[in-house]
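Structure ticket #2291
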Amino acid sequence: MALFERRNIEAKRSSPLPSDYLAMVTEVFATNFDEGIKKLTKLTKEKVHFDASGAIYPEEIILCVTLLQEKKLNASTVYASVDFDPKASSPTIQELLPLCVDAIGAVFQPLLTSKDPDTYDQLVSPSLSALDNIPFEWTKLQVENKRVYVKMNKANPLLENMADDWLKKHDPKLKDMEDEEEEQMKDLFITGPKKGSGSLH
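Resolution: structure written out below.
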């Protein structure tokens, strides 16, 4: 299980978000920021794309969307964190995750729709420090009257996922355990197309 930037660092146990849900999130960002991706691809002369990951912890849901370059380790990752009580009937995971998607979109939006070429240069550089209004620490946003916390850095969660994959190949019990957890999580989700899933609010 990859480790994510988290507000509540005490809880260790988590379940990954289902892969089909994450694929849908990735597609939403690719569709909504298509023009920005084209500019970055032209600038870097290599494929630039989004990747989504995330996990559910006992008190918190983490969703992260990463902007990746095909041939480089450089990445720009935005995390969204929201409080979650699995014992409460409301709000549900399905209600909270779209808020995380919108919060992450709010961070990427001014960067990937900018008219300033320097913004795109900074997005694919090793540091984000030259960019303005970047939430380098957990920053509270209000999304539909709910608190969502966002943070951005140059971490590349895919590298951790690669390490996880290596462990799974060499430890079948770990793979079986994670597969079982993912199946359990799928029961909590409706991952097909639904109103509002094709665009960021």
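Closing remark: The helical segments are 19-32, 34-44, 93-112, 117-123, 157-170, 172-186.
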